Amino acid sequence: MTNEEEIVARIGSIFEDTLSMSAPAPDLDIIDAALLDSLTLVSLLFAIEQEFGMEIPLDSLEIDDFRTLQSIAKMIASAGVSS
User: Do residues 68 and 2 make contact, with C-beta atoms less than 8 angstroms apart?
Assistant: First the structure.
């Protein structure tokens, strides 16, 4: 399992444990599928910050980074966070 695949699995766990919903497929557009509303997005951001020990500055937040679990994992990996 690659680092990015491990990050995707951890994000999937956030969906199940924190957001109380089944983890979507890694390539499903979670915004188009209406899985995220504004409150859920904030909860997801907070859970990611806690899980990966990082801070996601709101002024540099790109919504496209949160379209799929894969894109979230790429954003986390590019921030230099390891699994």
Answer: no
Exposed e or buried b per residue across 55-80, where buried means at least 16 C-beta atoms within 10 angstroms of its C-beta = ebeeeeeeeebbbbbbbbbebbbeee
Per-residue pLDDT of 7-56, as tens digits, reads 999 999 999 999 999 999 999 999 999 998 889 999 999 999 999 999 98
Q: What angle do CA 62, 10, 53 make, to 5 degrees?
A: 65
Structure tokens at 66: 């949160």
Which domains are assigned to the chain? 3-78 (1.10.1200.10)
